[in-house]
Write a structure and sequence with these properties.
heterodimer, A: Immunoglobulin-like, 2 domains, four-stranded mixed beta sheet, B: 1232 residues, 76 strands, 18% helix, 40% strand, DgyrCDS5762 (chain A), transmembrane (chain A)
């Protein structure tokens, strides 16, 4: 229900704007002048002024800035014009200005997709730099925390800690733990009970099993 | 009772049953399972089922009851509302065992239903039969079960139905793969279905009302129900509801797509610079153009400046110190800069015939004021500063005079004069008043003076002494006007301050005999001095005006330019002479004409600079009493030089580069060592032994050269930094580097000057001026074609390049052949003169014996010439197979020719003709695909362009097709002979349109054409591989925006010509895919990247009037971008469609190095496949490297070599140490 209402409103706006835009924009013989002012709020020096220019309809008409940032573009017949502020360092919002043959001005935001949509802005234009343009990509910085917390390093370091530190925590001299470990070892390596194929072969060829010697050598090796 | 039961089965159940039957293990012949569903009174709805494993033999049956219970419990968790309603089995009959199973299910639910599904497909039908079992036997002891058949309805929910329909589509497809259709398609299909159903209903109702059919009350009732279920809405209301919903949907889709694309672009597609890479592999050079107005200015806070105004409508301030731009203002493109006036702290520019008068501050170039004098001016305007102390600017244009206050920019007064068609008009500053002097084409000279307040002071009409006005040449010398009637070679003088009558200037007999025929104006308006000189070359007489008398100061054969300046309130004259590649500036006293020898200065003046054109001199006394002189020289080759006394020429600006016409990037030759190495493999006639010996010798030799090389390098580093001349002579500098990134940029300019520019530094390494030549000009489109006839790949043959120009006066052409690496001219310095004017020049892709690719020239009489003439044999060899075409923009007729041999001559025989209707439209662009040595150019009479067609396609296309998401291949239509023509015109309704044609150059077939209504040019177009992309300006509904359209051409799913394309064997219609995008902003030039092998993605480079150069991935301009992404498009990686092309700042490859008035973009491949070299030219030059798919073939430059080597060494150290430790430990253990 609510959704419906919103869409009604949208439709209404659309229709309304269309009606407005259908006003006459014919070309009379009279010439008009667009005026405005440019601000760059975050700098103090005026260096930016000489590199800033107003271009209308992609350079058909030009406007130059005075030292206070004001500009005027004259000799325009009535019609609809796109206004861009060009500066290599700052972003400005483009605007569109409609001038009727009676000399009425209307400034609005540029909307290339819905050409008829209107959201008016004040005339004479006051265009403020939105931000500094960032043309560049940020280089990834090397930092120690990134390095330490990277999965690869974690994967390598943690097992190392396990291997190096854990045996130290357990008192290896304690005979009880020694026995326990021994039993664990034996449990973990069932190899002792299953003869290897190669051993089996050697046994077979040398004639007769030598089990006792085998079981004696094994644990010593492990140590 | 039992038959009252209604059974509804959902399709899922049936699918499940069939599926479990298909997956059954070998042993049981049938599958049984539990049916789940909902029982509502007498309606049983079966919604789900699962298989129960069982075992059957002749006498017993075992069902895994545990499993069935477990499964049911699990299902219960998911869908708690479902209960066991019965069981199913496959097969078409109820067997004896069924009773047992049924009995078990009777325990699970009250009235189990049994369904048999005949999966054996008897009679090709899958019979589904339902049964209800009722016990028979004596009461209390049941003996058996009777299975009573039941009717079964198959019902489906909406979602199930959709799925079912989708699945059933696969039935007819060979690969049994279907994709889920998008919502939009679903809706469309559904509405189609509804329509047919409604038609059916209508038909039925019609028949009933006509009594052809009997009414069925059941149908009637459901019809009534149907009608009641539709809410009462008017058509419009309904529309708005649907539309608004639709809009919401579209908005959501759009936003989703936008976000997706934006993320993808940021992440993957756009190669973006790091801040520390600035200037590492790019450079920019800013120019002014052909300077027309220049003056020194010393008032500036930031040092002395030269204020210049150029033919390109640019005003700039150059620092005297190093010639760099202090500031630059680029005025309107179409409004000519008429006059530049210099005030104390400001410079006034009058442009557009008085349309604009603007004052800029000298220090920083800020606008002081601007006035708009008239809106539709005619002719040019002149201006002057007058009024003594209270400086005012007077402007004369279109028979009107304005006076503008210089401090406020306000127009003080305007006067309209009697209309006169002036041959010469000038404003002259005459003592606090301004005098308008007009010499009409017929009638007497009109002189009117106005004072500062606009009152008329004097008015005179003076009788003209000359016979004819058409060859009249006049200049102003302070308040005097000097006119030359060239036929009689007489000079006339008129003082505008006291106009009485013209006075004839009598020259000495010796001066008269020198054939002087042009006037030279000194523009300083200091002393009354002017020059009388030869119209070309050197030789000038200096003449001083003293009151109403004239005095000849002197004549010299070597003087080319003169100027006048003030030194300690004394006027001095400066003259420039050029002799034997040396320039000399000599100074003379104004009063006496005696030379001041102490000031004389000289320096080297290379012959390519031609002659100095104008001088500006600044002379002043330093504190220590010495005189310092600075001379600013504007020369014929458009260069600007600053000549400082005791310092020589300190800087030179090559303004010719502001008007580049063609560019090539030439590979540098391999180094000596490498060349020898290659030489080793060159010849094949040796046996093994001699080869071995040769190898030893070359390697010894190589060693020797290497030693020499090293020693040379060592000795060089001790010397200071090498200059330009050394660079070019250094054999190591101009050799190919590992990745072939170092190239020579060869450029031809409109001022008949050729440049060789180092692409790494932007330094000019050599330059050539062509004398007596002109560019080819066809209705404003100028060209100076450049061809690389032999590349550097053919060692020991040097590379060869040729420039073709028109003779300045005769109907002849000049072919200048030179080495593009060193700039050495082959043959005479004037080039080779040919007795014809080419209308079409094409470079052949076949080479002669010495690897030179000859040029084929068609002249206006359709005769074919070959340059160099030895190439004729190659052409004859391929005669009848060479095709070319010409485009005539004056008639819009395109002609195709085939080169044929007639006797011993070569002629161009017409083969096809296309008329593009001149009365409707004008041809604006002709773009062929690029071959490696670009060869499209202007001809003299017809228009730009030409191309020779051969079978080989030189732009490397790596992949012949596009692999789609469903793994099939769309083959590209790679017709190398295709060229695109764009036209613009106005249709019958008065609306402008643009059209695009794709024409096969061999057969003349128009393969594709399209028209955009309500669209304006200028159209920028790129043509590459199998696509074209073009920008136009849409003015639909009086709303304006730029749009980019892209057309891709495919052969289809089958390839027609795998090996070589032939225009003649095309017997199919290619597929065209098109799409258009909105582009916010305008485009002034467009190009596409090229790489060595064509594997790397392409990027479309756009130069914008805002000064940015935008590199957009071609992927964004893909006509197959879907509105709603499908699984297939996502798999293929096609971006979803969004109407507006993104304009990311990260994609602006020239970051803050803005370049203006870009006329062309040249791209060239580097040795690295990932890299494409780009040069944009226009008023400014910008060079950079682009990596459209990022750098995938070399390590990134920020690769951390230190880190990786540290890790490796660390690892080695650790392993060695631990080995030591472990062995020690093992030893100590062994001792235990």
């Amino acid at each position: 229900m609510n959704e419906n209402r919103i869409s009604y409103i949208l439709v209404f706006i659309y229709v309304f704007s269309y009606v407005i835009c259908d006003g006459e924009l014919g070309s009379g013989s009279e010439r008009f002048k667009i005026e405005g002012k440019i601000f760059v709020p975050f700098v103090n020096d005026l260096e930016w002024i000489s590199s800033t220019k107003i271009i209308i309809d992609g350079g058909r008409y030009l406007g130059f800035l005075k030292s206070d940032g004001a500009f005027s573009v004259s000799n325009l017949p009535s019609g609809s014009y796109s206004i861009e502020v060009i500066n290599p360092s700052y972003v400005f919002e483009p605007a569109r200005i409609d001038i009727t043959s009676k000399g009425k001005f209307r400034a609005r935001k540029m909307n290339n997709i819905q050409l008829n949509a209107v959201s008016t802005i004040n005339y004479p234009l006051k265009l403020k730099a939105r931000s500094r343009i960032n043309y560049f990509q940020e280089r990834e910085k090397w930092s120690i925390t990134d390095m330490i917390f990277s999965p690869m390093v974690l994967m390598m370091v943690l097992p190392l800690i396990m291997v190096m530190v854990l045996p130290k925590l357990i008192n290896a001299q304690d005979p009880e733990t020694q026995r326990e470990m021994q039993s664990q070892m034996n449990f973990l390596t069932p190899k002792n009970n299953i003869p290897e194929f190669s051993e089996f072969l050697t046994n077979l060829l040398s004639g007769g099993p030598k089990k006792p010697s085998q079981s004696r050598t094994k644990p010593s090796k492990r140590r | 009772m039992a038959s009252a039961l209604e059974v509804k089965v959902h399709p899922l159940v049936l699918f499940n049953i069939v599926d479990s039957y298909e997956r059954r293990s070998e042993d049981p012949k049938r599958v049984i399972g539990t049916l789940l569903g909902i029982v509502d009174k007498n309606v049983v709805e079966i919604t789900n089922c699962f298989t129960v494993p069982h075992n059957e033999s002749a006498d017993e049956v075992a069902v895994d009851i545990e499993y069935a219970k477990g499964m049911f419990d699990l299902y219960k968790r998911v869908t708690p509302w479902e209960t066991v309603v019965g069981w199913y089995s496959t097969g078409n009959e109820v067997t004896a065992h069924s009773r047992l199973i049924h009995e078990y299910y009777s325990l699970e639910c009250k009235q189990p239903i049994h369904i048999t599904v005949d999966t054996s497909l008897k009679n090709n039908r899958m019979n589904i039969q339902g049964y209800i079992g009722s016990a028979v036997g004596i009461s209390g002891k049941a003996q058996g079960v009777i299975f009573t058949p039941l009717d079964i309805d198959i019902v489906a929910q909406d979602a199930e139905r959709v799925a079912f329909h989708t699945i059933s589509q696969a039935k007819s497809l060979p690969r049994k793969v279907v994709s889920v259709r998008s919502d939009m398609e679903q809706v469309a299909k559904a509405s189609e279905q509804i329509e047919t159903m409604l038609e059916k209903v209508e038909d039925y109702v019609d028949k009933v009302t006509k009594k052809e059919l009997e009414a069925n009350p059941k149908v009637g009732r459901s019809l009534l129900e149907l009608i009641n279920s539709v809410p009462k809405l008017s058509a419009e209301e309904f529309d708005t509801i649907v539309n608004s919903n639709m809009k919401d949907l579209l908005m959501v889709v759009y936003l989703a797509n936008l976000t997706k694309t934006q993320l993808m672009l940021k992440e993957k597609l756009i190669h973006c610079l790091y801040e520390d890479q600035v200037g590492k592999f790019d450079w920019r050079q800013q120019y002014i153009g052909k300077v027309q107005f220049a003056a020194f200015n010393q008032a500036g806070q930031f040092g002395k400046k030269v204020i210049v105004g150029s033919e390109e409508n640019v005003i700039a301030a150059l620092t005297v110190k190093n010639g760099e731009l202090s500031w630059r203002q680029i005025l309107e493109n179409d409004d000519r800069l008429d006059t530049v006036l210099h005030l104390e702290t400001a410079v006034v520019a009058i442009s557009g015939g008085g349309k604009f008068v603007r004052a800029f501050t000298i220090n920083q170039g800020f606008l002081l004021w601007e006035v708009n004098l008239q809106s539709e001016p005619e002719g040019t305007a002149t201006g002057v500063i007058y009024g003594g102390r209270s400086e005012k600017v007077a402007v004369l244009a279109n028979n009107r005079v304005w006076s503008v206050d210089t401090s406020t920019g306000r127009v003080q007064w305007t006067k309209t004069l009697t209309p006169l068609k002036s041959k010469f008009q000038k404003l002259i500053n005459t003592d606090s008043s301004v005098t308008v002097l007009r010499i009409p084409s017929s009638g007497d000279t009109d002189v009117i003076s106005y004072s500062t307040d606009g009152s008329r002071v004097a008015e005179n009409t003076i009788k003209n002494p000359w016979m004819k006005t058409d060859s009249l040449e006049c200049i102003t010398v302070t308040t005097n006007v000097v006119c030359l009637e060239s036929e009689k070679s007489r000079l006339y003088l008129l003082n505008a301050a006291k106009p009485h009558s013209y006075k004839e200037i009598v020259l000495s007999a010796s001066t008269c005999s020198k054939n002087l025929n042009a006037l030279f104006e000194t523009r300083e308006s200091l002393g009354s001095l002017f020059g009388f000189k030869k119209s070309s070359g050197s030789g000038m007489a200096l003449i001083k005006i003293d009151g109403d008398k004239t005095k000849e100061l002197f004549y010299s054969d070597n003087i080319v330019a003169t100027s006048i300046t003030k030194l300690n309130n004394e006027l001095i004259i400066a003259t420039a002479t050029v002799e034997n590649q040396e320039i000399k500036i000599r100074f003379f006293e104004y009063e006496t004409g005696n030379e001041i020898t102490s000031l004389q200065m000289s320096d080297i003046w290379p012959s390519y600079r031609k002659y100095p054109n104008e001088l500006r001199v600044l002379a002043f006394k330093k504190k220590d009493g010495t005189t310092s002189v600075r001379v600013f020289i504007i020369s014929d080759d458009l260069s600007l030089s600053m000549f400082i006394k005791n310092g020589g020429i300190t800087w030179t600006r090559e303004e010719a580069l502001s008007n580049i016409l063609s560019v090539e990037m030439v590979d540098l030759p391999v180094s000596q060592i490498q060349a020898e190495m290659e030489d080793e493999f060159g010849s094949s006639g040796y046996n093994l032994a001699s080869m071995f010996v040769k190898r030893l010798i070359t390697q010894l030799h190589q060693f020797g050269t290497w030693i020499l090389h090293i020693s040379a390098k060592l000795s060089k580093t001790s010397g200071s930094n090498s200059g330009r001349a050394e660079l070019i002579n250094d054999p190591d500098y101009l050799t190919r580097d590992d990745f072939n990134l170092h190239k020579m940029i060869v450029a031809t300019t409109a001022s008949m000057k050729l440049f060789g520019i180092d692409n790494l530094s932007g330094q000019i390494l050599w330059q050539i001026s062509i004398t007596n030549a002109e560019v080819f000009d066809h209705s404003g489109k100028i060209a100076l074609p450049l061809y690389i006839q032999r590349t550097t790949a053919h060692f020991p043959h040097p590379p060869v390049a040729t420039v073709v120009a028109r003779h300045a006066t005769k109907a002849q052409s000049i072919f200048m052949t030179f080495n593009p690496i060193t700039g050495e001219i082959q043959g005479s310095n004037d080039g080779v003169l040919m007795n014809y004017v080419p209308i079409q020049i094409t470079q052949l892709q076949f080479v002669q014996e010495d690897y030179i690719a000859p040029l084929v020239i068609i002249d206006s009489s359709k005769m074919v010439h070959v340059y160099p003439t030895e190439g004729k044999n190659v052409v004859k060899e391929h005669a009848n197979n060479l095709f070319t075409y010409t485009v005539d923009t004056t008639t819009n007729i395109l002609n195709g020719y085939v080169i044929m041999q007639e006797d011993s001559y070569l002629v161009a025989a017409p083969s096809w003709r296309v008329d593009l209707m001149k009365n409707e439209q004008n041809i604006t662009n002709i773009v062929a695909k690029r071959s490696i040595g670009t060869n499209y150019y202007l001809r003299y009479q017809e228009i730009p362009f030409s191309y020779m067609f051969t079978v080989s396609f030189l732009e490397h296309v790596h992949s012949q097709g596009v692999v789609l998401g469903d793994r099939s291949v769309m083959y590209k239509y790679l017709n190398p002979n295709l060229f695109a023509v764009t036209t613009s015109g106005v249709d019958q309704q008065g609306k402008s349109f643009i059209s695009v044609y794709l024409i096969d150059g061999v057969t003349g077939n128009v393969v594709y054409s399209t028209t955009h209504k309500s669209a304006l040019g200028p159209v920028q177009i790129v043509h590459s591989e199998n696509w074209i992309a073009y920008v136009y300006y849409s003015v639909k509904n009086r709303q304006k925006r730029s749009e980019v359209a892209v057309v891709e051409i495919f052969e289809g799913k089958e390839q027609n010509n795998a090996t070589a394309f032939s225009s003649f064997s095309v017997n199919y219609q290619p597929m065209f895919m098109t799409q258009a995008y909105i582009f916010s902003g305008h485009v002034s030039a467009m190009a596409v990247t090229v790489t060595e092998k064509g594997i790397t993605n392409k990027e479309v480079i756009m130069a914008l009037p805002t000064g940015s150069i935008l590199a957009l991935p071609k992927m964004l301009l893909d006509p197959r971008r879907p509105l709603v992404p499908t699984a297939e498009s996502q798999e293929e990686g096609v971006l979803p469609y969004i109407p507006e092309l993104p304009k990311l700042f990260e994609a602006m490859v020239n970051y803050n190095q803005s370049v203006y008035r870009v006329k062309g973009i040249h791209t060239a491949p580097a040795g690295l496949e990932s890299t494409s070299l780009v040069l944009t030219y226009g008023l400014d030059l910008f060079y950079t490297r682009l990596m459209p798919s990022k750098m995938y073939d070399v390590l990134k430059e920020d690769f951390d070599y230190f880190f990786i080597s540290a890790v490796v060494t660390g690892m080695i150290v650790v392993s060695v140490v631990t080995q030591k430790f472990s062995s020690r430990k093992a030893l100590s253990r062994a001792w235990k």
